[in-house]
Specification:
With 617 residues, the chain is of the alpha+beta class. It is built from 20 helices and 24 strands.
C-alpha cells in the first residue's frame, strides 16, 4: 500500500498560505505592495477588529480586465516576471504570484477591479479558495480587495492570533512602513469605519516622517546626504548622537524601497554609532539603501522580509561611512549655533539691564540698585557659593504687606551682570555652574546644560585614543607563546587580517594548517586565556568596519581609564578651566556623548522655556 499521497488542491493552498499569510498584517502588506506595483497614487486601508473581521484595500492603480483578474487568483500567476533573468533583477515589490491565491484560500474574498477608460469592471467572489461568482462591477477605476473572516476555515491558525489591539498595532506598523517607503503616494487608514490617519502626497521623506511621527521626533533626526558609491547609495534620516530607544521599534531599513530585516544592516548601524549610544540602546533610523537589483537577492523568504547581498561588506561599509559622516555634520551644525550671536546678559546694551535700571530708578529706597563693576564678584566665588553673592553686593527687600515676620529676600546680582567680560571671539556664553556639575550656557536657541564629567570623559577619550593611534599600540610579549587552532572559516579570516591584528598590538602568525601562534598582546589588556580571547576578538572584528580604529580592542579599557581621571561632580573649576573644557568638547569628533553613550549636553529651547512659564500653550 502506497504511503505517499498527493494533497488535495484546497489543502495544498492552505498549507502554502501559511508561508505568506501569517497574520492580518501580512495580508495588508501583500495587498498594499500589489497596489504600489500597479502604479497607485492613492491607497486606502480599512480594517475591523484588528483585521480578523475585515480588511479592505482600495487603490487607483491600473486595474485589470476580466481575464487578468481571474488569472491573478491562480497560483504562480504574475505580471512582474517572465523569465529566470527577471528573477535575478527584481524591480517590483511582488513577484511570486502567491499572495492573492493564498489569501483567498483562507478567507471570504472579494475582488473588484476596473481599468481606466473601461465601461465596466469585474467583480469576483471567492470562498475558501473556490470561485463562486464572476460578474460585472461598477466600481471606480483601480482595484478593491476585501478580505473577510480571515482563517475561518483554518481554526488552528486563527486561535494563534493575538488580541484585536495587538493585531491592529501590527497592521499600523506595516501601514507606516509602506507610507515611509513611498512618500509620493497618499495613504489613508480607516479603523472601524472611522478615518484614523490620512497622509497626503509629499515630495520629501522629511514631510512624511513629520506627518507620521510629529515634528518633535524630526527635530532629533539628521539627514543623510546621498553619495554615489559605484551604484550604491545610502540616504534617509538618523537620530542624533544619544537619541535612542530600548528596542528596534523605530529602526526602519529599506532596500530598493522594500522594508527588510537584516542582521548585516543592523550591525552596520551599530558600528556607525560606535560610542555614540549607550549599551543596550538602539538608534532611531529611517535608512534607505539603493543599489543595482542584480546585487541583491530578495527571493530568500516567502514573506520577502530577508535579502542577501552579493557584496555584504561593501554595503556595510557604505552604511557605516554614511552614519559617521552624518553624525560629524551634526557637530558642525551644533558649532554654528554656538557661533551665532547670543543676547548679552548685562551691560547698557542689554534690554534686561535697561529694565533693571529703570525699575531701580523708580523704586523708593533703591531696593534693586544697579551694581557697579567694583561690586561684581569673581567667577570662582560665585561658583563656590552656588550663585550666592557677598552681602555687600546685594540689597534686602523690606517686608511685603503686613507680613512682618517674612524673611528678607536677597537679590542676586550675578543674574543681571556678567561675571567675566566675554571675549570677542567667544563662541558661547557661559552663565554659571549648577550643583557643581552642570555648566549652564546660553546659545541662540536657548539654554544648554553640559555635564562636566561626561564632557571631560569625551575629551580625554578622544585625546588618548588619537595619541595611541599615532604612536602605535603598546604590546607586551607573553612569557609562553600559545598555539591554537580555529575552524576553517575563522582561520581564513585571520590569514587575510593578520596585519590588522598586528596593528592592534596582537603578535600573531600562521603555525600550520588552521593553526596560529600568539606571542604578544596589548599592554592594557589582562588576558588569562589568549586562545579564548582571540576567538572573541575574531567574532567582534568580523562585524566592524574596515575603517575602524585599530584601538577598538582597547576602547573599553580607555573609557574606564578616562572615567577615573575625568573631572568629577563637585570638583571646583575656575572660569578659564570651564571655558577650556567647553572649547575642547566642541572640537571633539562626537561632542554630544561620553564614551559610554551618555549625553554630554542637553539643549532646552526658548519655546520649551516659554511653555514651562505659561507664555505659550
Amino acid at each position: 500500500m502506497s504511503r505517499i499521497k498527493l494533497l488535495p488542491e484546497t489543502l495544498a493552498s492552505q498549507v502554502a498560505a501559511g508561508e505568506v499569510v501569517e497574520r492580518p498584517a501580512s495580508v495588508v502588506k501583500e495587498l498594499v505592495e500589489n497596489s504600489i506595483d500597479a502604479g497607485a497614487r492613492a491607497i486606502e486601508v480599512g480594517i475591523q477588529r484588528g483585521g480578523m473581521s475585515r480588511i479592505r484595500v482600495v487603490d487607483d492603480g491600473y486595474g485589470m480586465d476580466r481575464d487578468d483578474a481571474l488569472l491573478s487568483l491562480e497560483r504562480h500567476a504574475t505580471s512582474k516576471i517572465a523569465s529566470a533573468a527577471d528573477l535575478a533583477a527584481i524591480n517590483t515589490l511582488g513577484f511570486r504570484g502567491e499572495a492573492l491565491p493564498s489569501i483567498a484560500s483562507v478567507s471570504r474574498f472579494r475582488l473588484t477591479t476596473r481599468e481606466h477608460g473601461a465601461v465596466a469592471g469585474t467583480e469576483i467572489l471567492v470562498n475558501g479558495g473556490r470561485i463562486e461568482t464572476v460578474r460585472d462591477g461598477g466600481e471606480a477605476p483601480g482595484t478593491q480587495i476585501e478580505v473577510r473572516s480571515l482563517f475561518y476555515n483554518v481554526p488552528a491558525r486563527r486561535k494563534f492570533l493575538r488580541s484585536e489591539t495587538t493585531e491592529t498595532r501590527n497592521i499600523e506598523h506595516q501601514f507606516f512602513l509602506q507610507a515611509l517607503a513611498h512618500p509620493a503616494i497618499s495613504f489613508s487608514l480607516v479603523r472601524e469605519d472611522k478615518i484614523a490617519l490620512q497622509l497626503p502626497i509629499t515630495t520629501s521623506l522629511r514631510d512624511r516622517i513629520r506627518d507620521i511621527y510629529g515634528a518633535e521626533l524630526l527635530d532629533d533626526l539628521l539627514e543623510i546626504l546621498s553619495r554615489d558609491r559605484g551604484g550604491l547609495q545610502v540616504r534617509g534620516w538618523i537620530g542624533r548622537a544619544g537619541v535612542s530607544r530600548q528596542t528596534r521599534s523605530q529602526q526602519f531599513v529599506f532596500v530598493n524601497g522594500r522594508a527588510i530585516e537584516s542582521g548585516i544592516l543592523s550591525t552596520a548601524l551599530r558600528e556607525g554609532y560606535h560610542t555614540a549610544l549607550m549599551r543596550g540602546q538602539f538608534p532611531v533610523t529611517c535608512l534607505f539603501v539603493e543599489l543595482d537589483p542584480r546585487e541583491v537577492d530578495v527571493n530568500v523568504h516567502p514573506a520577502k522580509r530577508e535579502v542577501r547581498f552579493r557584496d555584504p561588506a561593501r554595503v556595510r561599509e557604505a552604511i557605516v561611512e554614511a552614519v559617521q559622516r552624518t553624525l560629524e555634520s551634526g557637530r558642525a551644525d551644533w558649532q554654528r549655533k554656538f557661533s551665532a550671536p547670543v543676547p548679552a546678559i548685562g551691560g547698557t546694551t542689554s534690554a534686561g539691564a535697561e529694565a533693571v535700571e529703570r525699575v531701580s530708578s523708580q523704586t523708593p529706597g533703591g531696593i534693586m540698585a544697579t551694581p557697579s563693576r567694583a561690586e561684581i564678584t569673581e567667577w570662582d566665588s560665585v561658583r563656590r557659593s552656588s550663585f550666592a553673592v557677598p552681602s555687600q553686593s546685594a540689597s534686602q527687600l523690606p517686608p511685603l504687606g503686613d507680613r512682618g515676620d517674612s524673611p528678607p529676600i536677597e537679590v542676586n546680582r550675578a543674574y543681571f551682570e556678567p561675571q567675566v567680560e566675554p571675549r570677542r571671539d567667544q563662541q558661547f556664553q557661559i552663565i554659571g555652574v549648577l550643583n557643581r556639575l552642570y555648566v549652564l550656557m546660553e546659545n541662540s536657541d536657548g539654554l544648554v546644560l553640559v555635564d562636566q564629567h561626561a564632557a571631560h570623559e569625551r575629551i580625554l577619550f578622544e585625546e588618548l585614543r588619537r595619541r595611541m593611534e599615532e604612536q602605535g599600540v603598546p604590546s607586551q610579549r607573553m612569557l609562553l607563546p600559545q598555539i591554537f587552532s580555529l575552524p576553517p572559516r575563522d582561520a581564513e579570516w585571520v590569514e587575510h587580517n593578520v596585519a590588522t591584528l598586528q596593528k592592534m598590538g596582537i603578535g600573531i602568525e600562521s603555525f600550520g594548517a588552521n593553526s596560529f601562534r600568539v606571542d604578544s598582546l596589548p599592554t592594557f589588556l589582562e588576558v588569562a586565556d589568549a586562545a579564548g580571547f582571540l576567538r572573541k576578538v575574531i567574532d567582534e572584528l568580523k562585524t566592524t568596519s574596515h575603517s575602524s580604529s585599530p584601538l577598538r580592542l582597547g576602547e573599553d579599557m580607555i573609557a574606564k581609564t578616562v572615567c577615573r581621571h575625568a573631572v568629577k561632580a563637585n570638583d571646583p573649576l575656575r572660569y578659564p578651566e570651564i571655558e577650556k573644557l567647553i572649547r575642547d568638547l566642541l572640537a571633539c569628533d562626537l561632542p554630544y556623548c561620553c564614551p559610554h553613550g551618555r549625553p554630554t549636553m542637553i539643549q532646552i529651547s526658548h519655546a520649551e522655556l516659554e511653555k514651562k512659564f505659561g507664555r505659550k500653550v
